[in-house]
Every structure is written in structure tokens, then in C-alpha cells.
Amino acid sequence: MTGNIGGLPPFLTLVGQPVTVELKNDLAITGVLVSVDQFLNIKLDNIKVVDEERYPHMLAVKNCFIRGSVVRYVQLPAPSVDTALLQDAARRERQQPATGARK
Amino acid sequence: MSDFFGFNTVMPGRQGGRIALNLEEQQELDRQVQKYALETGEDFEIYDYGETYDNLADDLEETRDDLNDETFGGAGGADEGTDFDFAKNTHQVAPALKKEEELYIKQSDHSGVRRSSFASLWENDGNNQQESFMKGLPEPSHAASSIWGSFGNTTAKGMDLGGNGGFAVHDPVFGQGTFALSRPAGFGGNQPSLEEIEAQLSRTAGAQPHLQMQQERKMMSLEEVEAALMNINGGRPIYSEAMIAEQQAKQDRLEQRRAERQAKQADIAKHNGLMTQSDKDFINRIQISQLVTDDPYADDFYCQVYTALRNRHLQQMGIPGNIMDAEGNQGDSRRRGGNGRTEQRMQQQVQRIVSDAKRNPKRTNVTVEGALGKIAVNSVLNPRQLLQVSKRGSYTESSGSNSPKPPSPGPVSTKSHTVLGWIENVYTYVLALEQKRRQQPPPPRMGEEEIAGEAIRRWNEEYGVLARKMWNELRITVPIGIVHPHPFISILNYSKGKKVIPRVLRHLLPEQTLTLLTMLVANFESLNVCKSEVYADVQGNQEIELFMNTIVPPLLGFVSEAPFRIVVGLLALFIERNNMIWVARSKPGLAFLTLFLSRAEILKQGQGNYPIPEDREVNQWNELYHRLFNQLQTHFSALFMPKATMAEDVHVWRFLAAMAVGATVDQQHVLVTEVREQVLENVIAAQTTRMSPEKAAQRIGNVNLFLHALGLDASQVSVPSM
């Protein structure tokens, strides 16, 4: 009834971890993950623009909200993700699409 | 007046009542009318209007128009233009206006005459006026720009109020207030008031610092007084008065802060009542429904299990502190305690909503009356299909038959996706079994055994069904020899298949595990990790490592509990069905051999949980051993990897040790002779100081594995002088 949560669960366990988000406009931002929602909109704290801060307009920005649709990649810290568990979670979701498709 | 765009405007009645038609024309007209009447069959007599004109036009005042030009200006009024440019005119007098305003500020007294800002007078909501009079907003006169608005901004905002076309009049005085009045229903009423509110807020925000400055000015004056007092008394402060002054200052500061807080509250409260209770409930419901879940495992499997695993991990590692606390800090607190009742209520609400939704499902297709076809309603949960995938008929399983349903060329490729399909099915069952385990009904308490027993029985049944299905899916019971490689082996050839085995073993009965092991042993050499050329590439190594990590340990555990005859039987099978030389060159093969050998030795010496085996069995074992030895003879040194690959050879040494333990003296001789080179090499390498101490120790240790089994030690090895 909350419907299909989609790719959300792994991010829920990563709240508080430093991640790097690469956007479709080639901007890559590192920051601490504050929150995620069902559209994979991302809020980052204490951000720092990755490699060659040739985006000087970002110098003064400390926190940001990124719309989910502009994200290309999210780089996660490897030890924070349990890949086998993730595979299982994906299998389960594949088996239960009913909750999502109905609405 | 007689000329209307070139048309003749002479009215019939002007010339005295009737159109003067001469006789001919009249007759002609009558003839035509009659002809027409005959043709159409209409009776034209009734259309004779004749005398119907009522002569009212004769009474019109159409004279005395001489002064028109003076009243209405020149012809067409070309020089004025139809638009009046208020902004430009106001701009020209702007400085004057500002000066006047400043004068006014200086003259007016601040005795709490609080008038709400101009713009608020224009708000649509009449109630606010009363409130703002009560609460007392900061005077607009404090911010010099407030009364007249800001000239620059209004142009942009004025144009924003969409679709006004030639609306060149924008009134900076009242900002958007006039727009609100003049066009209340024109465009959605929200727009002007929203911008209005914004403008108002910015104005009042601008007013705050002025308020503060005032107070500070008062403060300064106090301190000035203090300083003045000090000066009068020749530098020595008069304590009493100074202290009083200080206290006064403190109180003033407190009051000032309180006033600020009140002002801020008033600011916020100005916008109270914008949403109705139902609006707020609506939004609350949406937000909370996202948090409350029916079955926590359904949507949030990963999170729950991950955090549970991590907690268990942390507990095992003995990290101090309450783990649940750390959880709560990370924003999960809204799920857990502290919500209690509200959560239950929300859950009930959500369940009600769900049941309602189930009864009346929202249609994904909307059909409007009279439209040709359906309109698909897309949402987040019902997204637009991008790809059309045709469903294949699901293929039926038949035990033993390996013919896949969609035919594809070549025996190898036909297996790949079917095998993968089997593996995924196994995963499905494993997940279901694990889920079942989690939902295991608690052991019955005293007196409730009947009811609880029923639940337990049911649970056991379901569990058994799933376990059996999983077992079938593994294809272990498929008889050997029909297809090469054996389907179970094919499953094990994939890393996915290897990873699932430890989890499978947890749900298998002991005899099933034995069968599994037997099957594995019987077909060992067809495993892909058994090919020795696999060592060459990285992926092969990974597969081997995976095998060693996933399959060997649980089976090791199993074999360690196994009785003697089983070990004997397994080893016999192993030797019989597999080419030992081939198998022994691989890590897994050696691992298994070592496993069997060591276990047998332990049992023989009676150190296991089983009684010492009978002689018959021991003889069988010895026979087997000899066979193995004979097969491997002369090949022992070849077991070691070529030094070029720098691979670890601990397992080889371990195997040799296991062999040595069960060997007769002659056999031991043979062993030593064959691997002498290797032993010497390692010892020499360790003793020359070219490598790091850890590596040297490791080398020595490896060699000692073997030598100790023989009753020797590395230190006894005398290095022959070169």
C-alpha cells in the first residue's frame, strides 16, 4: 500500500555516510547523505565538489538538494553495502511486484 | 453625419415618410414580388410592412454638434497616445517624494501609533485588517522604501501577472495591491495575493533592523550617561548609580529580546488560517502513510535485515554501548518507540484506506463519454510501458530430462540459461525458507500446547514442502551419466550457484547433505574449478577462492562429524570416479583429499566421537590409501605450482602432511624423496635473508607441516653446501 519503494532501501542504510553523487551534467559532489526519498532525491550536507573545482559557483554552498532525475551515479562506500543481501532484496522485490503494480 | 464609411445613410423616413417610387418602379417591383411568390409558393402579402415605421427617429437631437472638436480634442487625438505612462511620471517626482517622506519620518512621533502597511489594506481578506491593527505591525515609515514600494521590482512583477498583454499601467505605489482589486477573478486568485504577501514580508523584514537600531540607540544613551557620571566625579565611578544603570540596561536588553520574539511570532501568525484542517490532515496522511508499513519485510527487506545483521555483528565484536540508541539517532526514531499510539492509529487508518482502495480500484484507463478510446492514467506506481516484452510460456520441469523448452543450438549453450533458471529457483526457495524461519512460531507455553501445536504443525508442513521443492531444484537426484556434465555440477560451475550452497545446506536434512556430497565427489573432476589451467587467469582464481570459501567449509563441518565408513565410502568413490592425478592438481581437489585423509586418521586413532573402527574397516581404508598412493606416485612434486605464478602452496603441504601421516615407512621414504627439492628450496630460501621475516617464517611453517608429520623438523634439515 505504500507501494513500490523501488531503489530506496540501500540508501536508507547509508544515511550519514559520505557519498559521491555524479550528475548528468558531469558535476560530481561529495557529501554526507542526509536524506533520500522515493524519487531518489538526495540531500547532502557539507558538500565539496569533486576534482578540479572548476565550478567556482559552488564554493559557498554547504548543503544541497539534488533532484533524483538528474543523478547519473551515486558512489557508495564499499564496506557499507552488503552485496549478497542486496541481491536477495532484489530477488524478493522481483517476486512481489503485485503491491506496486496494482495502484 | 450622412456619411458612414461610405454607405448611404439616408433613412427612408427622412424625406417625409415614404420612399418615392415612381409608378414604373412600383409596378416593376410588384411584378417581381408576384413572380417570386409564384415560384416559392410563399404568400408575400403578409410581408407588406408598409406603414410600420414609427417616426421615432424624427425626435433625435442631431444638431448642435459644433463644439464636439473642443470636447474630444483634435481629430483622432493622435498626440496624446492611448496609454498614460504613470511610471515615468512618478519616477520623475520620486526624489521629491522621498524627501517628503523623510521629513515626515523625522516629524512623526513613535508613540505606538501602529498602522498596518499600505499593501495590507488592499488584501482581499478583510479580516486581516482587524488582526493587524490589534497585533501592531512595525510602522512602514521606518523603512523608507516601504510606502512607495520599489520602483525597480514592480516592472518585473507587473509583467508576471500573466497574459495582461497591453497592460502598460503598473502602479508602483500600491505594488500589486491594485491588481488584486481590479482583477479578483481574472486569474487564479492566489497569484496576486501570494506575491503580495511576499512583498509585504520583505518590507516588514526590512523594518526589523530599524527597530533594533532604535533600541541600541537608547542603550548607547544609557552608557553615555554612565560615562558622563564618571567624568563628573573625576574618574571614580559612583557604584550605586552605575550598577542601577547596568541593571536597567540588562532589563532593557531582555525586554528588547522579548519584544523581538513577539514580533517574530506576530509575523508568522499573520499567515495563520491559510490551510483548513482538512488540508493539514490530507498532507499529514500522505506523509505518515509513507512511514507506516504493513509488513516491514515486504518493502524494506534490505534495510531491516542489514541493520539487524550489523547489530549482531557489533554485538559480537563487543562494541560497547546500546546499539538501539545509535539506531534511533539516525532518523529511524520516527519508526520506533515514541510513536506508539500514533503509529497504531496511523496503521489503522492506512489499513482502512487500503481496504477502501481494494474495493474501488482506481482505474488505470479512463474513458470519457464520447471519446474514441481510452486514456491511460500514469502514475509513479503505474508507469508507462517503454518496452513490449512477449511472455514465453513457462516451461515445465521434468525430472531427469534436460531438454530446455526454447531450443537453441549446441549442447553447451542450451544449458546456460536453463541452469541459471534453476539457480534462481533455488534462490527463491532459499529466500522463502529463510523468511519462514524468521516467522517460526514460538515454542508453546504451558497450557497452550493444543493451539500452539496446531500452528507449529502447520509451519513444519509448509517448511517441509518448501525444503523439498528446493531439493528438487538442485537436481542432485538426477542419475549420473545421462548428461555430461551433471546438472548439479553445472549449477556449481556458476558463482551464483556456489554462493547459494551454504545457505541451502542450512535447510537440508543430514542424509540430503550426504547425498549432495556424494554427488559432488562422484563428479568432482568435471567441476570447472578443477581444471588446472584455471589458475592462469584472475577470474579462474576467483572462482577457486569462492569454491574454497563457500563449499568447502560447510562440507568440512559435515565430514568432521561423519563416521568412519562414510569417509571410507566417500574416498573410495572419489578415487574410483575421478582421475586422481588430474584432481590433485587443483586446489579444491587437494582440499577434499586432505579433508578425507585427516578425518580418517582422526577416527582411526579414536579421537573422534565414534568408537575406534573395526579392523575390517581399517583394512579397507589401508587398501584405499595404497591405491591412492600408487596413483599419485611420481607425481607428488608436480603438485607444486610452478614458481612463476607465485601462488600459495600451503594446501599442498597440508595434503602432503595428511598423506604422510597415513603412510608406511616405505611410502614416507618415497614421499620425502619426491619432494626433497621443494623442501630444500624453501628452507634455503627462508634461511637466506633475502625475504622478510614473516615470509620466511611462513615458508618454514609450511615445510614443517609436512616434516612434523614425518616426525622431522626443518631445523634438522642440513643444508648441503653448494
TrEMBL record, chain A:
InterPro entries: LSM_dom_sf, Sm, Sm_dom_euk/arc, U6_snRNA_Lsm2
One GO CC annotation: precatalytic spliceosome
Gene Ontology terms: biological process: mRNA splicing, via spliceosome
Residues making up the signal peptide according to the UniProt record: none
Intracellular or extracellular location(s): Nucleus
UniProt domain Sm: residue ranges: 6-80
UniProt keywords, alphabetically: mRNA processing, mRNA splicing, Nucleus, Ribonucleoprotein, RNA-binding, Spliceosome
Keyword match Ribonucleoprotein: yes
Pfam families, per database record: LSM
CDD domains noted in UniProt: LSm2
One GO MF term attached to the UniProt entry: RNA binding
Function: Component of LSm protein complexes, which are involved in RNA processing and may function in a chaperone-like manner.
Similarity comment: Belongs to the snRNP Sm proteins family.
Name under which the protein is recorded: LSM complex subunit LSm2
TrEMBL record, chain B:
The family this protein is said to belong to: Belongs to the PAT1 family.
Name of protein: mRNA decay factor PAT1 domain-containing protein
InterPro entries: Pat1-like, PAT1_dom
Keywords for the protein's UniProt record, in alphabetical order: Cytoplasm, Nucleus, RNA-binding
Record domain mRNA decay factor PAT1: where: 4-116, 243-714
Region (Disordered), start-end ranges: 321-365, 390-416
Places the protein is found: Cytoplasm, P-body; Nucleus
